[in-house]
Amino acid sequence: MKLVVLGAAGRMGRTLVKIITETGGASLHAALEREGSPAIGSDAGLLAGIGDIGLSVEADIDAALDGADGIVDFTAPAVSVSLAAKAAEKRLVHVIGTTGFEADADAAIGKAARNGAVVVKSGNMSLGVNLLAVLVEQAARALGPDAFDIEVLEMHHRHKVDAPSGTALLLGAAAAKGRGISLPEHSVRVRDGITGAREKGSIGFATLRGGSVVGEHSVILAGEGERIELSHAATDRAIFARGAVKAALWAKDQPAGLYSMRDVLGLAA
Ligand SMILES: NC(=O)C1=CN([C@@H]2O[C@H](COP(=O)(O)OP(=O)(O)OC[C@H]3O[C@@H](n4cnc5c(N)ncnc54)[C@H](OP(=O)(O)O)[C@@H]3O)[C@@H](O)[C@H]2O)C=CC1
Ligand SMILES: O=C(O)C1=N[C@H](C(=O)O)C[C@H](O)C1
């Protein structure tokens, strides 16, 4: 499967270039960065630390998509939205790892999936986090609507630009699903000053940023006299890249539509 990596000089882009070259059935068709990026013209393999692979980073998306089977995209929300429309036009697989989408951007990606793109989108492409989400959903369902308070805590590196993380929101959505409630209607994303007592049935988020932390998430279910914590720690971005490439290979045989990593991994609650 011929894959185009968008954001090839980024933290995830470099990891993806390495993992694609190591994965049977996948090959690197093109590596892209935005117009004006200092990475344009550099060898994608040299940037990824795997030596010269004879493929330079380019900026022309339309030329890069010519002859490609799929796109792996860990960039920024506006970039992913405009690429989803192109993927629909060309009937391509589009794996979206980007996080930080607003509701209107999600709606635009849903539209692209209805119009011909095979989209796999997830705030976290790792097996571990997607299994954790299943466990969170089960725990929230088993513990009932409000006897236990649910809080999602995350920590990431100092460069991360969105909060709460896509993973924190994915875990919050799993908890909300287990409780049979809507996350947007029950989430508390910021607390500051005299907040009043905790609202019954809410799902809280707390964000830490610093250093080089790849990604750490805990879902805390706090009851009277006891507390359950379900956690995941990522120590290597390769887990996300492997998941993304697996998603692309899986999506190749699917009809157009919007899929999640749970679909790819066959994980049901
Ligand atoms: N779902 C998952 O499993 C994971 C998701 N992520 C998410 O992936 C995204 C990227 O993370 P990360 O790699 O750390 O970020 P980086 O900033 O390191 O990488 C993003 C790259 O995309 C480039 N870019 C921006 N605009 C364009 C464009 N129009 N065309 C091509 N390339 C472009 C950036 O270039 P420039 O710097 O010049 O703007 C940069 O090189 C984030 O949203 C993050 O949350 C990260 C890890 C795992
Ligand atoms: O920006 C990151 O680095 C990560 N982003 C994703 C998120 O927002 O959850 C996934 C991972 O935790 C790393």
TrEMBL record:
Pfam families: DapB_C, DapB_N
Active site, UniProt feature: 156, 160
Record-linked SUPFAM superfamilies: Glyceraldehyde-3-phosphate dehydrogenase-like, C-terminal domain, NAD(P)-binding Rossmann-fold domains
Originating species: Jiella endophytica
A single cellular component GO annotation: cytosol
Dihydrodipicolinate reductase N-terminal domain mapped to chain residues: 1-125
Protein name (record): 4-hydroxy-tetrahydrodipicolinate reductase
NCBIfam families with a match to the protein in the record: dapB
Single Gene Ontology BP annotation: lysine biosynthetic process via diaminopimelate
The protein's Enzyme Commission number: 1.17.1.8
Reaction equation(s) it catalyzes: (S)-2,3,4,5-tetrahydrodipicolinate + NADP(+) + H2O = (2S,4S)-4-hydroxy-2,3,4,5-tetrahydrodipicolinate + NADPH + H(+); (S)-2,3,4,5-tetrahydrodipicolinate + NAD(+) + H2O = (2S,4S)-4-hydroxy-2,3,4,5-tetrahydrodipicolinate + NADH + H(+)
Family to which this protein belongs: Belongs to the DapB family.
Primary site of residence: cytoplasm
